[in-house]
């Protein structure tokens, strides 16, 4: 079985946050930037499209992984992403850095990590 989205878990988290904030489903959809029909279909067990999923987890402020179901034992077998792979999205999301500054920082990190890894060998 491949990994998949747990739509029920996502819908339950949305419902809890919606109730905590005193919002209607229509208001939640508007705030999240998705259609009201999307959240309605999710209530009937349908999966959101990728853009809808992203908008909803961003609205919740929760990691997307929270709503993933892994095949048995899969998370333990997955190699941890490299530090470069984990840093790249953080630097790219920083509005205070221009593209060339982000690229420069990623280059500096990559060179530094290569040096440190070579020293450990």
Automatic annotation (TrEMBL):
Signal peptide: none
InterPro entries assigned to the protein according to its UniProt record, in alphabetical order: Cro/C1-type_HTH, Lambda_DNA-bd_dom_sf
Domain of life: Bacteria
SMART domains reported in the protein's UniProt record: HTH_XRE
Membrane-spanning parts: none
GO MF entry, a single one: DNA binding
Domain (HTH cro/C1-type) ranges: 14-67
Gene3D superfamilies according to UniProt: lambda repressor-like DNA-binding domains
Name of this chain's protein: Helix-turn-helix transcriptional regulator
């Amino acid at each position: 079985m491949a990994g998949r989205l747990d739509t029920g878990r996502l819908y339950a988290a949305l419902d809890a946050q919606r109730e905590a904030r005193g919002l209607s489903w229509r208001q939640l959809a508007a705030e999240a930037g998705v259609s009201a029909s999307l959240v309605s279909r999710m209530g009937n067990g349908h999966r959101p499209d990728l853009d809808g999923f992203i908008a909803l987890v961003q609205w919740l402020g929760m990691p997307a992984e929270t709503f993933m179901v892994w095949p048995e034992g899969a998370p333990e077998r997955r190699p941890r992403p490299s530090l470069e792979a984990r840093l790249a999205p953080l630097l790219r999301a920083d509005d205070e850095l221009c593209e060339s500054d982000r690229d420069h920082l990623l280059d500096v990190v990559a060179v530094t990590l290569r040096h440190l890894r070579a020293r450990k060998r």
